[in-house]
Amino acid sequence: MPDARVRLDHVLKLTEEAAHRTLDLVERSGPLADRMATQAAALVEPIRLAHAAYADSAVGALLSRVETFLLCAERDGAAVRANLDEVLMAQSYQDLSGQIIRTVIKLVVELERTLAHFSKLAGERPADDAAPVQQVSAGHGHGPAIPGANTDAVGEQQDVDALLAAMGM
Q1: Which of 138, 159, 156 is nearest to 10 (CA)?
Q2: What one-character DSSP code corresponds to residue 155?
């Protein structure tokens, strides 16, 4: 049970860190996209006027390309801003998943407490006095190694090769 709590706490920490990093990057990128779109929009009309004056020259052709670029920059900046807003909204999953994980951690703690109580009622020795219980390997069906969790997991490729060789594979 303590191992399950450590793993759930680790997942919670990872998702919170990732969500905060994402939100920070989105919040820093939004004003950049806004500024690009605004500045591009502000330059479109002066470029059109200049293009009209130089319509039949190489400068006119260049101004036409600049105008097209500015229109695209304005449109794309607005689209990037809209996408960033969607990312902000999508990050709400982290808050919900965090609440669920915290509830599961409380459930695990309560289950552990209840099992200890039943053990005491049944006349079993308290866990502190009990004979050591053989631990299930953390590497067996529990995912990657987690800091603070059971460290019986295989960590290196050499360990994996040795384990497979011991199994005759």
Answers
A1: 138
A2: -
Furthest-apart CA atoms within the chain: distance in Å: 100
Distances (CA, A) of 45 to 51, 59, 63: 10, 16, 11
- How confident is the model over 109-126, as pLDDT tens digits? 888 889 888 888 888 655
Q: Which residue has the tokens 């793993």?
A: 7
Range 13-31 average pLDDT: 91
Query: For residues 19, 21, 24 and 29, what is the CA-based torsion angle, rounded to 10 degrees?
Result: -110
Distance, in Å, from the CA atom of 169 to the CA atom of 5, rounded to the nearest integer, reads 34
Structure-token match 């800091």, residue found: 147
Buried b (16+ CB within 10 A) or exposed e, 143-161: eeebeebbeebbeeeeeee
Which pLDDT score, from 0 to 100, does residue 116 have? Answer: 87
129 pLDDT above the threshold of 60 = no
